[in-house]
């Protein structure tokens, strides 16, 4: 049974109708939630004109407008809608009240609402969003049919310890393990806001993709990081037979975090009362 | 600089050097309180007792006691600088040794009776610890969840309740307790009690087992359970119902201090990353590493400019210090955390080392664990938002564009100040001096003012004017948004929009502090007078506002990186003072390293 701090299994959102309550429950219970959608199925829900502009906000609207291909535009719009809906469920505010912003390295964040960290990934028809109230989160997706040849990439992608482990495996198992390792590395470096800028041979994963390790195979964290990899299938869309892999890196910084992540309760009534009373007196 | 200033600054540096000497060369693997030893203690959840003994030997406890009570605490900015040698070695040591004792004692310094002050001062001067038992706070983590109730009765108060995660619970000789004394919610619900170890407390609290923590692993966190604990009436600090006001008042110093001392911790990681880049330079030249290192260095300077101005504002503008303190605490821990994550790309595998054999490289992962515990994460930001959100509509109407450019003394980091006075701090109202500094600096830049010309090139100065202008534009947008709000504060808390606008405001305030600092420089330090670092740092802040700016002019990165390398080689701090910690082995210089080697290349002035 999964427990607090461990990575929660991804939840399918077939449409903007949800089930968003499950996001709140997952964030409250596990500390994190991962949701996914087939953006083709959300297509009809993408608004146009001023309504979409207001939902996307200025920054993302400009990025959206600069995109040429309709496919890419729809996928971009749906990914941001999924993010806003998921965030709004955890924060208990309207989706358009959330401001999605980007740090200098490109990591998305919810401006002014740091009770939730977020991450975003997409591949073909799949869009995935991760939320975490206990620390950083990174998500990454790939098609399971994506071929990665060990002999071609191991020098850039694997640590010495990983090579020792992978080299012994038969080819199909080797490729599957390589794909999992790759998506885990993407997820972890996205959680750190660095992406590919962090060298993939500088850290590794142990057997089963559960433990962060040094290149020599020693433990590299004290359990503050949890990892998970899940296989996802999508129905509908032009390629219903595609299978996806999603890897998630989730941090728990300790000290329990706040179980309540809603915006409505985050300003302490006592402090707010003091400040407002004093301001009122000065006004009066 | 006047003789008095020179003398005061020399005194500050002597004390810092004394602390540095007491703790010895952190890079020395044989030093029992060096990085290797501290990392290993952290691994075992062990308190660095030897480091504590050495700090005791130089009377470090006196740093947290007001000068008027026989201690050394007179200036908030100087206290922060004196704490940095501790924080650059170990955040847990910094918190566990004394800073949490200060957080506790502050309420007594602010409102305690003469007897309470005298007794607590004596205890802390002698190296005794005071623990703080916080009240429950909205969105609180385990340190801020749950609280005690104090029932007034004939003999004083009866305390009941349980609090988890009290630092130094096991060994504190005094407790400052924020307890609920009123049924009502809101302003007058809590009071502060000082529990002393003098036989006046009956049915003492039960100590719960130590809880091992993810961050600050060496610190001893344990719970306290109060059952029918009888406290005399004169344990009350200040007046009944004054608890939240005292929290808001004393938090101003805590918030500014934490922001400032964490820069000392970040210094260690930047130093390790520069060392890694320099050692590796022969093998893998160039790449993006100079840009990463220069950006982190520039961020630290900007944060130091903001923290220093805010710490000094507590002396100069005690009616307004609450604004800057909330802003700096909101921004700095977050910015530092991101810089550390970025520096991780330079350190690579070395950042995960635990043996300390590579000097401080393994310090990165430790600091990434310690930081959320020190900055309190969301609990901390939400508490700062509670101060800022209701006040911004007032400031937009009354202060922005109206308040005068602050005096030079606010930014003159070496100038003496009159002693810090807790009683004078207000918890709401006042003026926005950081926004005033932004507008003042932009005026000076437009009129050709600023640090003396001759440092940096024309392109960099032009870039600085452009970036400064974007923050003024942002301020104008914020003013429009906040002016339309009915400033009764009530509905504000429930909207994510106001939280987002407050986030934007903090970035503007930070730009104001950094620009205010820079335009007042006299050119004594040619590196700081060159706006290259400021262009890099402000460009990153503007990026956080979603503004797209042209790349910094060519040479900016190289000049800032050059200084980072030069400071590494000469062992000088990555802060506004750039001083070398005196004492044995204080410089990181290896054979053949000189101050003007690779580091000064690319300097235009």
Automatic annotation (TrEMBL), chain A:
Keywords: Transferase. It comes from the Bacteria. Gene3D superfamilies: 4'-phosphopantetheinyl transferase domain (3.90.470.20). GO terms for molecular function: transferase activity. It holds the Pfam family ACPS. Residues 136-205 form the 4'-phosphopantetheinyl transferase domain. Belongs to the P-Pant transferase superfamily. Gsp/Sfp/HetI/AcpT family. This is 4'-phosphopantetheinyl transferase superfamily protein. It comes from Streptomyces pyxinae.
TrEMBL record, chain B:
InterPro entries: Acyl-CoA_Oxase/DH_mid-dom_sf, AcylCo_DH-like_C, AcylCo_DH/oxidase_C, AcylCoA_DH/ox_N_sf, AcylCoA_DH/oxidase_NM_dom_sf. Residues 579-595 have a biased composition (Low complexity). Its cofactor is FAD. Pfam families: Acyl-CoA_dh_1 (PF00441). The keyword Electron transport does not apply. The keyword Transferase does not apply. The chain crosses the membrane at residues 91-112. It comes from the Bacteria. Residues 241-381 form the Acyl-CoA dehydrogenase/oxidase C-terminal domain. This is Acyl-CoA dehydrogenase. Keywords: FAD, Flavoprotein, Membrane, Transmembrane, Transmembrane helix. Belongs to the acyl-CoA dehydrogenase family. Residues 579-605 are annotated as: Disordered.
